[in-house]
């Protein structure tokens, strides 16, 4: 005997509350808690804490993966998580998105009152598209925005960090001592990223290897130039403070040019954002408020091919738009 509708609704609400509580916990752990964790890590470094403990608190556990398409996707996702300052692994994020997508796909028909209209495969596919858009696409968009915002802040702070580093060298500090000054003086994300460098050096990494790891995590032109300058100075000798002072001037001039380019390209980027978000936002809004708008024509033979074609063209359009507005300076 099938359960009545009230029992089914209560069951779905129970699972919805569980997912909501779990999502709130992970949001607090990965967004708000890192601020206090960074403070504790820096305090631990300043007080001479164990390098292995500091490194473990800074570094997310990396999974050993084979060279496949899936592993490549996971590596790119893990890079975004690292740039966003989140310690969650790519596998856990995918699991949470899968659970959220499945929960939405099960709860949406009941909450929207369209359970009696799901009498075809195409209707189920439409509900699945709705669930994927909320449970998978939206978190990926938010993750990308968070990572881009954090890396932009890193680039803005880096010239100041170089000035502090140069002053530390000219005051007589060794390179590791000047790095400690960055950890103590600079806020996140510069402070936490260089705290990782200090922890790796304390753990036994070579300075160049630690900076290469930093360049791999951040992947900005400025930090790559910084890593190359330190590597050249280690090989050939010379006054590192003068080299980095010149680099700081170059980076500031380059940032001035970047700001001009961003101002000229701001209209195109805003257009790209609107064209990227508007179709998904419109679909989610219409399906949430008027699901019959789609479900009344879902049995039309051209509906499913149109949906597949529209999704393919949308994906191609997003890729082309990102190429057009991604200006390199």
Q: Any overview of this molecule?
A:
The chain is mostly helical and 329 residues long. The protein has one domain. The chain is built from 12 helices and no strands. The N and C termini lie far apart (66 Å). About 3% of the residues have low confidence.
Please tag this protein with its features:
mainly alpha, 329 residues, 12 helices, 81% helix
| Portion in helices | over 70%
Low-confidence stretches: 48-58
Anisotropy-based shape:
elongated
Q: Characterize the biggest β-sheet.
A: none
Whole-number count of domains: 1
Query: What percentage of amino acids are in beta strands?
Result: under 5%
Number of strands: 0
Order of helices and strands: HHHHHHHHHHHH
Gap between N and C termini, in Å?
A: 66 Å
Backbone CA Rg:
25 Å
Roughly what is the average pLDDT, rounded to an integer? 79
Structural class label: mainly alpha
The number of helical segments is 12
């Amino acid at each position: 005997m099938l359960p009545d509708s009230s029992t089914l609704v209560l069951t779905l609400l129970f699972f919805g509350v569980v997912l909501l509580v779990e999502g709130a916990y992970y949001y607090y752990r990965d967004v708000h808690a890192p601020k206090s964790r960074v403070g504790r890590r820096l305090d631990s470094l300043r007080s001479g804490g164990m390098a292995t403990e500091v490194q473990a608190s800074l570094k997310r556990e990396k999974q050993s993966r084979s060279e496949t398409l899936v592993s490549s996707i996971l590596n790119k996702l893990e890079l975004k998580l690292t740039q966003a300052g989140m310690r969650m692994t790519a596998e856990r994020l995918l699991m949470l998105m899968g659970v959220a997508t499945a929960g939405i796909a099960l709860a949406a028909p009941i909450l929207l009152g369209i359970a009696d209209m799901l009498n075809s495969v195409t209707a189920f596919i439409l509900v699945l598209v709705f669930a994927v858009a909320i449970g998978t696409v939206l978190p990926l968009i938010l993750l990308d925005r968070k990572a881009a915002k954090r890396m932009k802040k890193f680039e803005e702070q880096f010239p100041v960090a170089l000035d502090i580093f140069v002053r530390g060298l000219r005051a007589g500090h060794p390179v590791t001592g000047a790095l400690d000054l960055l950890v103590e003086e600079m806020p996140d994300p510069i402070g936490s990223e260089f705290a990782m460098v200090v922890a790796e050096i304390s753990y036994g990494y070579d300075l160049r290897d630690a900076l290469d790891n930093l360049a791999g995590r951040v992947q900005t032109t400025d930090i790559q130039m910084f890593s190359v300058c330190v590597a050249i100075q280690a090989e050939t000798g010379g006054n590192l403070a003068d080299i980095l002072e010149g680099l700081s001037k170059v980076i500031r001039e380059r940032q001035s040019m970047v700001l001009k380019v961003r101002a000229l390209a701001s209209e195109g980027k805003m257009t790209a954002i609107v064209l990227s978000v508007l179709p998904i936002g419109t679909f989610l809004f219409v399906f949430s408020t008027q699901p019959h708008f789609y479900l009344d024509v879902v049995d039309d033979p051209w509906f499913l091919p149109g949906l597949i074609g529209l999704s393919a063209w949308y994906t191609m359009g997003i890729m082309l738009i990102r190429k057009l507005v991604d200006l390199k300076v």
